[in-house]
Specification:
177 residues; mainly alpha; 7 helices; Cell_wall_mannoprotein_1; signal
């Protein structure tokens, strides 16, 4: 009987992953957009001088929350049959809508580096760098997932979106090297 228990748990997990619908994917994309806006607002609100450790750690928390939202989307968007043209367009439109916001946030990370360096406790720039590396990896997988399931006529737009976001992350990460 002990042999059945792990199989039941595994079957339940597989069922939960496979039960994610296109609606779940769209809802996740909206959540990602909201998390990106939260991060963008936080980094832009961080002052160029006299910033606080609490605010810097809040930005870190926002980055972690965005990473969690991206990773949830990845688990929900395992290859799904039935991604229609309309659904693919909706998901791509959401991603294109948050592209300028994530690029603004990444630019702000570059601009605010001296403020992070000036904080009285060391290590914040290293934490920011790690957050950027982690977000880049999650965003890269998210973008690749979009490319893999949008209808063929939307692939070029999805690839252009990925290229722009990749360039933004490359610039931000390089600033913290």
């Amino acid at each position: 009987m002990k042999f059945q228990s792990p199989l039941i748990v595994l079957a339940s997990l597989v069922s939960a992953v496979l039960s994610a619908t296109v609606t779940d994917i769209i809802n996740d994309a909206h959540n990602i957009s909201a998390q990106i806006t939260t991060l963008d607002n936080a980094i832009n609100a961080f002052p160029t001088t006299s910033g606080s450790l609490v605010a810097a750690l809040g930005i870190h928390t926002d980055a972690v929350n965005l990473g969690a939202a991206l990773n949830k989307e990845l688990s929900d968007s395992l290859p799904k049959p039935g991604i229609t043209e309309a659904n693919g367009t909706t998901i791509l439109d959401i991603a294109e809508g948050f592209e300028p916001i994530i690029l603004d946030a990444l630019n702000a990370f570059v601009t605010k580096k001296p403020a992070f360096q000036a904080l009285p406790i060391g290590g914040i720039p290293a934490l920011v760098k790690q957050d950027l590396i982690n977000l880049n990896a999650s965003m890269d997988m998210f973008d690749a997932q979009i490319i893999s399931f949008v209808p063929p006529d939307l692939v070029a737009s999805a690839e252009a979106l990925k290229a722009a976001i990749d360039a933004g992350f490359a610039t931000a990460i390089a600033a913290y090297q």
